[in-house]
Amino acid sequence: MYAKNFFLLFAANIICAVGLMLSRGYTVYGTEQAAEEAIETPEQLIEIINTENVDMEPRASIERVIPYETIEPNYCIKTSDQDIESLMKIVEAEAGGEDRKGKLLVANVVINRVKNAYFPNNITDVVYQKSHNVTQFSPVSNGTINEVEISEETKEVVYSALRGEDISNGALYFMARKYAKAENIAWFDRNLTFLFSYGGHDFFGR
User: How buried is residue 49: exposed, middle or buried, by Cβ count under 10 Å (0-12/13-18/19+)?
Assistant: First the structure.
């Protein structure tokens, strides 16, 4: 009787130990098979556990770690590395001498165009788009887009715009009235809806 009670107590302790291991994130292989064995003595139970593959290494903390590089940025539009570079370059070329708000407005216009069915559906194609063989942005036509040195502020503005910061009121066009040709100014004023002016640019919607 004493031996039987001792065996039951011993077996209960082993089961509790295995349960504790599982609850703390350890993986125990083979315990299901061991449970199905006909166990008659404490020595047999010990032998079964010792001969099974018991992994005592905690794995939960390792498996839950997601490398930062695998997390997709939460951008407001689908964006490639090339798109981000194109946006940084056009913002720098068009508004490099302006403050943060002026740069943000240029980025907003490009992103607004991507969202609009009238324009291409990605940033790079919007930046380099031609209509009747005429580019949409003067830094593309004169080549200065390839000569800019992108500032840290421009990088910050572009990432912020891609994450949804938008102060553009839906603007799809802008022009520097001071430098634009008379025929271009007339086209803007005649065909588009003026929204507001900021810095060196006038902004328009359709």
Answer: middle
pLDDT over 60 at 62, yes or no? no
Q: Which of 54-58, 105-109, 138-142 has the least mean pLDDT?
A: 54-58
Contacts of 63 (CB under 8 A, 6+ apart): none
Q: If you write DSSP's letter for every residue of 100-162 in order, what string do you get?
A: HHHHHHHHHHHHHHHHSTTS-SSHHHHHT-EETTEESSHHHHHSGGGT----HHHHHHHHHHH
Q: Report the C-alpha gap between 161 and 76 in whole angstroms.
A: 8
> What sign has the CA pseudo-torsion 41, 45, 46, 51?
positive
Mean pLDDT score, 127-153: 93
| 41: DSSP letter | S
pLDDT for residue 10 = 54
**Looking at the predicted structure, is the pLDDT value of residue 89 above 70?**
yes
3-state helix, strand, coil in the chain (%, to 5): 55, 10, 35
Q: What is the mean pLDDT of residues 147-152?
A: 96
Amino acid identity of 8? L
Q: Is the per-residue pLDDT at 143 higher than 60?
A: yes
Q: Strand pairing partners for 27?
A: 55
Residues 205 and 172 sit within 8 Å (Cβ to Cβ): yes
